[in-house]
Write a structure and sequence with these properties.
binds iron/sulfur cluster, 16% strand, three-stranded antiparallel beta sheet
């Protein structure tokens, strides 16, 4: 089975370079505001909104490894992503979990 280490050359650890926030409703003005700051705004299936904010995690090393890997300090959203749980996650560019098994 593939894993993240084998895929870093493709994804560049894109999952560690953004934050996301969900909103029930956004006005056109707020969407424009986020977009002018480099964010990506998209609709979720339930018609709420998701805003992706470019933000590199301070725990990411220069060679795209997680300095908290294997530690209890690794944040929960960074754990447990696999083919069974991927529907709960925001998948990012080049992520191997965005590809069907
Ligand atoms: S804590 Fe580790 S896995 Fe989570 S975003 Fe930061 S570098 Fe990536
Ligand atoms: S979860 Fe996806 S984007 Fe993140 S390191 Fe693994 S393959 Fe790359």
């Amino acid at each position: 089975m593939n894993d993240c280490l084998d895929n870093l050359g493709v994804c560049g650890a894109s999952c560690c370079k953004f934050l996301y926030f969900d909103f029930k409703f956004l006005t056109d003005n707020m969407i424009y505001y986020y977009q002018t700051h480099g964010c990506t705004v998209s609709h979720l299936p339930d018609r709420s909104w998701r805003v992706l904010v470019p933000s590199r995690c301070i725990q990411l090393t220069a060679d795209n490894l997680c300095s908290l890997h294997g530690s209890a300090k690794k944040p929960f959203p960074c754990r447990d992503l696999d083919y069974k749980t991927k529907h709960k996650y925001q998948l990012t560019k080049g992520c191997l979990y965005g590809i069907e098994e």
